[in-house]
Specification:
The complex is a heterodimer.
Chain A: H1 6-11, H2 19-55, H3 64-70, H4 79-86, H5 88-119, H6 126-133, H7 135-138, H8 141-151, H9 158-165, H10 177-205, H11 209-217, H12 222-250, H13 254-260, H14 271-280, H15 285-312
Helix pairs in contact in A: 2-15, 5-10, 5-12, 8-13, 10-12, 10-13, 14-15
Chain B: H1 8-36, H2 58-66, H3 69-100, H4 106-115, H5 121-134, E1 142-144, E2 149-150, H6 151-163, H7 165-176, H8 182-189, H9 194-205, H10 207-223, H11 226-231, H12 240-250, H13 255-283
Antiparallel strand pairs in B: 1-2
Helix pairs in contact in B: 1-13, 2-13, 3-6, 3-7, 3-10, 7-10, 8-9, 10-13, 12-13
Classes of the chains: A mainly alpha, B mainly alpha.
Keywords (chain A): Cell membrane, Membrane, Transmembrane, Transmembrane helix, Transport
Pfam family, one (chain A): BPD_transp_1
Subcellular location (chain A): Cell membrane
């Protein structure tokens, strides 16, 4: 497939599109991507479409066996979706999930940047502090949650023991929805700070110190330097982390599920824990599949509008 | 890089803030350690002290010699090792072209990797299980006798290496973005081909990011139990988290043993974190500077 004239290529690139040239140019890129893509396709995309199919069926514990054995599914159209949207609990849970996500991510990013700024300064023992502050990230989450559950115990838990020491009456953390939700927030905020802190630290180190020197000469205060140099330059680094942070927090099953198991079951569910219970405790697979599609769409819409907003900014 | 000098009072304030934060960060971990040392009869204690009275290593002894802990450990090591190898190789290659090359579908590909994070993992569980079952990768048959590796372990390895992959790809891309492109240009002029330029020049420079990517994969495989619990049915194939949760279910009061197991699972992770903490700062560059 030889090209008749080189000039022609520039005049109408489209009509002279050559698959061979295209391949020669991008072969390396696609070959390098292929393995990663195949794996993700296999483990994420296929199950996704599979789930799509389930969302329009009435699969539950009674017809599950038939489905596994003979691949029989009864499709019920969008009935699952209608049911979900009509439930009053859906909107409450959605609101709670939004609150959960916003509070968590704001705290993670806020504290993360705060610690990063302190640790980036000239301070003694900073590598020791840094190492110790990362520990919450290093402990497996399911262990963390169980530890905290013990620490929130009314009589024996460390939190109440500490409160009583300073003269505050103990709080029955895990017996009311409001305190239980606060407890879950405390645990998850504690868990998420190190990740954001490390990301922010990495970002801070890539900021040219000359900026600060120039600001110093111009007489900018510390706070002005942070506001006008540090934060704007951190933005590109923090952005993907914030997007991921929101998605992870929104989809965080473990903290609330394990913390409320046997105590506040159902009382402070967020969307994903509700889905998990529907699927694996009440065996309403079709309903749960539809519900998780809704979650996906919510996150997708959010991500697209957020990225647009940032790009326009 | 610290050009900022603070007055003494400020430094004192910073130290106070950091010390309080460190106590809050470390206390829960120490608490588990304390619980694991408790003798059986003092599980409920109203003391805030870390080391209990009559501390004993009894729980560790029971755990290691009577509960199959070592077998779980081997299984976990096996699954983790292969997950890390696969995760790092896939992420380092994919991240590289996302950072360096401009090809149709680049932006779409990056977004796609981000999108995979948005679907609630719990609902991928059922389809994934069915898929693995179709390929026979949930069977408990041993395929590599020498290592004790079963087909189900291979299933887990595939699942884990892909779960952490999107994050790892973004992370690698972010780091490659910080390496000047002139390096490869020079290498290409010197007659290396594209892959050699990547492999011989850039990859060694990306060591901090490779370490972080390995760490992410390691954490995924080492700590995961939702999938493992569904896939593993045989006690001798359990990975550590499954073994641990079973311990908690089996003996409702064996908190000392549970805590001991938690400590033993935590120690490697924490040790790795401490060893790698100098890489964590430079190497963690999610997304990076070029967008």
């Amino acid at each position: 497939m030889s090209q008749p004239g080189e000039n022609l290529r520039f005049t109408s690139a489209l009509s002279n599109f050559s698959l061979k040239d295209f391949w020669r140019e991008h072969k390396f890129s696609y070959m390098m991507l292929l393995p990663a893509f195949i794996v993700v396709l296999f483990v994420v995309i296929y199950p996704f479409f599979y789930n799509f199919r389930l969302a329009f069926s009435n699969l539950n514990m009674y017809n599950m066996r038939q489905f596994i054995q003979n691949d029989e599914l009864t499709y019920v159209g969008i009935q699952n979706f209608i049911q979900i949207v009509q439930e009053s609990s859906f909107w409450i849970i959605l609101l709670r999930t939004v609150a959960w996500t916003v509070i968590n991510v704001v705290a993670h990013v806020g504290f993360g940047i705060f610690y990063a700024i302190i640790l980036d300064r000239d301070i003694m023992f900073k590598s020791i502090y840094r190492t110790l502050l990362v520990i919450p990230w290093a402990i497996p989450q399911y262990i963390v949650v169980l530890i905290w559950k013990g620490m929130f115990n009314f009589r024996y838990g460390a939190v109440n023991l500490l409160l009583r020491k300073i003269g505050v009456p103990g709080v029955a953390w895990l017996s009311q929805a409001s305190t239980g939700f606060s407890a879950a927030l405390i645990v998850n905020i504690w868990l998420g700070i190190p990740f954001m802190m490390m990301i922010a630290l990495g970002g801070l180190q890539s900021i040219d110190p000359n900026f600060y020197e120039a600001a110093e000469i111009d007489g900018a205060s510390n706070w002005q330097q942070i506001k006008h140099i540090t934060l704007p330059l951190l933005k590109p680094v923090m952005l993907p982390a914030v997007i991921l942070g929101v998605v992870w927090t929104f989809n965080n099953l473990r903290v609330i599920y394990l913390l409320t198991q046997n105590t506040l079951t159902n009382k402070i569910d967020i969307l994903v824990t509700h889905v998990y219970r529907s699927a694996f405790e009440f065996y309403r697979y079709g309903y749960a599949a539809a519900f998780s599609l809704i979650i996906f769409v919510i996150l997708l819409v959010w991500a697209i509008s957020f990225i647009d907003y940032i790009n326009a900014d | 890089m610290s050009v900022k000098k603070d007055p003494t009072w400020k430094k004192v304030v910073f130290h106070i803030i950091l010390i309080i934060s460190v106590i809050i960060a470390v206390y829960p971990a120490l608490r588990v350690f304390g619980t694991s040392l408790r003798p059986g009869d003092s599980l409920h204690s109203t003391s805030l002290a870390i080391i209990p009275d009559n501390a004993t290593f009894e729980a560790y002894r029971t755990l290691i010699f009577d509960k199959g802990f070592l077998v779980w450990l081997r299984n976990s090591l096996l699954v983790t090792f292969f997950t890390v190898i696969i995760g790092v190789s896939l992420a380092s290659t994919a991240g590289y072209v996302f950072s360096r090359k401009r090809f149709p579908g680049r932006k779409g590909g990056l977004t796609f990797f981000l999108l995979t994070q948005m679907f609630p993992a719990t609902m991928l569980l059922l389809p994934m299980y069915i898929l693995l079952a179709q390929f026979g990768l949930t069977e408990q048959t041993i395929v590599v006798p020498f290592l004790g590796m079963a087909k189900a372990h291979i299933g887990l390895i595939i699942m884990y290496s892909s779960t952490a992959l999107p994050l790892c790809v973004w992370q690698m891309k972010g780091y490659y973005d910080t390496i000047p492109e002139s390096l490869e240009e020079a290498a290409l002029v010197d007659g290396l081909n594209q892959f050699q330029a990547f492999y011989k020049i850039i990859l060694p420079l990306a060591k901090p990011a490779l370490v972080i990517t390995a760490l992410f994969s390691f954490m995924t495989a080492w700590n995961e139990y939702m999938v493992a619990r569904v896939v593993m049915t045989d006690n001798s194939l359990y990975t550590l988290p499954v073994g641990l949760t079973n311990l908690a279910g089996q003996f409702n009061t064996a908190w000392a043993q549970f805590a001991a197991a938690s400590v033993l699972i935590m120690i490697p992770v924490m040790a790795i974190f401490l060893l790698l903490s100098r890489f964590l700062v430079g190497g963690l560059t999610l997304g990076g500077v070029k967008g």
